[in-house]
Q: What sequence folds into this?
C-alpha cells in the first residue's frame, strides 16, 4: 500500500510550525551542549550560559561554529553530554584511521535518527512491500547501518549486502526480488559492467529504485544510472557528524533534496566571510542537529557547497530543498565514497626516509571508479639501478598508506626534481574527475 508521508503532521507543517519546533529543540540542544566540556567553554565565552539565552532562532548566530577538527580534538569523549552508559551506538567518518571524528547516539537519538531515514525512504515512494538491498559499506561508516535501520523500521525486507562481491550482488537481487538498492553512484555504475559476467539479465530483476549518495555526482551520472538499469535514482545526502543518511533526501519529484528541518537547522554561509547568504545563493552548508542528546553539535561547518532551492516542492513538504552538492570548501577528496584528506597522505609519505621533498596526488576515473595515484620523488640517496630496491620502496609506501587510510592508492616513484614545481602555492592535488 502506498503511503505519502511517514509523519504527515511534521512533514507538511508550515514554516511557522517548523520554526516553532526548531526553537524548542534548539533550546534543548543548548542545554545538553552546556553539559560538555567543549561547548560549556565555547558557549560561556559567547555569553550563553543556559537555554534562556536563546530567545529566538536569530539567537543561533550567537553560537560559534563547530568544525571537524573540534571533534578530533575532543576525541574520544570530550563532546559527550550524557553518562557513557546512555550511549547505545557510535559511528565514525569514513576514511582516516588517524584520530577519527566519532559520534555517539543515545537510545532516543537513535530512534529519532531511524525515524528520519524511514521518512526519507517513504518520501521516495518506498513501502513495506519493497525488498531493500543495502550495498553501502557496513561498519563504522554511517552509510550502511543507518539506512538499514530506517528501511527495517518501515517494514521492508532488508538485505545487508554491504559493498563488494559484485557477482553475488546480482544473484541476490534476482533470488530475493530486490526492488530498491542503496549504493554510491560510482559503485552502481561499476557493477553494471559486470552484470553480463554474473549470468543475471536485467529482465530477471525487479529493481525499480536506487538511493545514491556519499559522494558528489552530477545530474548526468544520475541519468546514466537511471537509463542503464531502467530505474529511478534518488539523491541522498548526509555526513557522519549529522548521523549520516537521512539529513536530506530527494522525494518522488527528484528536484533537490529536502532537508528535514524539524531535525536540522540549516544555514548557507559564505565560506570566506561566514556571513549568511540568501536562499538561492551558493555557499557552505552549516547544520545544527536538533535531536542529539548524547553528542550535540551546533552550527557544524559541513564544508559542502550547495544552495537552497527557492520555492516549494509539488510533494507538499515545506522542508526546504538543497541542490546537489557542487563541491567542498576544503580540500577533502572523496574516493569511491571514502573521505581522504591530502594532508593525511603527506603525513604518511613524509615519514618515509627514502622519500624526497616533492609529491603530487592525482585522482582520475578508471572505468566508473575513482583511482588515486601518489607520485613522489625519491631522495638522492635512493637513486639506484637496482629495480628491486625501488619496487620494495613502492610497496612499503603503498602499505603505509593502506594501513593509515581505508584506500589503497597506486604509488609512482620519480627521480628528484622530476615532478612539477609550481611558482606560487604548491599544487599537491590534480583532480581530473568532472562533477558537472
Ligand atoms: P561521511 O562523514 O564519511 O559520511 O562523509 C560525508 C561527506 O560525504 C559529506 O560531507 C559530503 O562531502 C559527501 N556526501 C555525502 N552524501 C553526498 C551526496 N549525496 N552528494 C555529494 N556528496 C555527498
Ligand atoms: Zn518534495
A:
Amino acid at each position: 500500500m502506498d503511503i505519502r508521508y511517514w509523519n504527515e503532521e511534521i512533514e507538511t507543517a508550515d514554516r511557522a510550525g517548523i520554526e516553532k519546533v526548531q526553537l524548542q529543540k534548539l533550546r534543548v540542544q543548548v542545554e545538553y551542549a552546556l553539559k560538555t566540556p567543549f561547548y560549556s567553554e565555547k558557549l560561556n565565552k559567547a555569553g550563553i550560559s543556559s537555554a534562556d539565552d536563546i530567545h529566538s532562532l536569530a539567537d543561533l548566530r550567537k553560537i560559534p561554529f563547530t568544525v571537524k577538527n573540534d571533534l578530533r580534538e575532543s576525541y574520544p569523549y570530550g563532546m559527550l553530554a550524557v553518562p557513557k552508559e546512555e550511549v547505545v551506538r557510535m559511528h565514525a567518518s569514513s576514511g582516516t584511521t588517524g584520530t577519527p571524528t566519532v559520534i555517539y547516539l543515545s537510545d532516543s537519538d537513535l530512534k529519532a535518527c531511524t525515524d528520519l531515514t524511514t521518512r526519507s525512504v517513504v518520501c521516495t515512494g518506498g513501502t513495506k512491500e519493497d525488498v531493500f538491498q543495502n550495498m553501502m559499506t557496513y561498519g563504522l561508516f554511517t552509510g550502511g547501518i543507518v539506512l538499514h535501520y530506517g528501511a527495517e523500521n518501515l517494514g521492508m525486507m532488508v538485505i545487508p549486502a554491504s559493498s563488494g562481491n559484485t557477482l553475488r550482488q546480482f544473484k541476490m537481487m534476482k533470488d530475493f526480488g530486490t526492488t530498491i538498492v542503496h549504493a554510491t553512484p560510482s559503485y552502481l555504475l561499476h557493477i553494471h559492467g559486470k552484470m553480463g559476467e554474473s549470468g543475471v539479465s536485467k529482465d530477471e530483476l525487479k529493481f525499480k529504485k536506487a538511493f545514491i549518495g556519499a559522494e558528489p555526482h552530477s545530474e548526468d551520472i544520475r541519468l546514466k544510472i537511471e537509463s542503464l538499469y531502467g530505474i529511478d535514482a534518488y539523491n541522498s545526502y548526509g555526513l557522519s557528524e549529522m548521523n549520516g543518511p537521512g539529513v536530506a533526501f530527494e522525494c518522488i519529484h527528484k528536484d533537490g533534496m529536502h532537508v528535514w528541518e524539524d531535525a536540522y537547522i540549516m544555514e548557507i554561509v559564505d565560506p570566506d566571510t561566514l556571513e549568511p547568504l540568501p536562499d538561492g545563493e551558493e555557499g557552505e552548508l552549516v547544520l545544527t542537529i536538533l535531536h542529539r542528546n548524547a553528542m550535540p553539535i551546533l552550527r557544524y561547518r559541513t564544508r559542502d557547497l550547495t544552495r537552497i532551492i527557492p520555492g516549494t516542492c509539488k510533494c507538499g513538504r515545506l522542508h526546504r530543498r538543497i541542490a546537489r552538492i557542487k563541491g567542498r570548501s576544503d580540500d577533502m577528496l572523496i574516493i569511491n565514497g571514502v573521505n581522504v584528506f591530502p594532508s593525511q597522505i603527506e603525513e604518511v609519505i613524509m615519514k618515509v626516509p627514502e622519500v624526497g621533498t616533492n609529491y603530487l596526488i592525482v585522482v582520475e576515473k578508471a572505468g566508473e571508479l575513482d583511482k588515486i595515484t601518489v607520485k613522489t620523488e625519491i631522495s638522492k640517496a635512493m637513486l639506484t639501478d637496482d629495480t628491486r630496491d625501488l619496487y620494495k620502496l613502492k610497496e612499503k609506501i603503498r602499505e603505509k598508506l593502506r594501513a593509515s587510510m581505508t584506500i589503497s592508492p597506486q604509488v609512482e616513484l620519480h627521480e628528484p626534481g622530476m615532478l612539477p614545481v609550481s611558482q606560487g602555492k604548491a599544487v599537491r592535488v590534480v583532480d581530473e574527475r568532472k562533477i558537472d
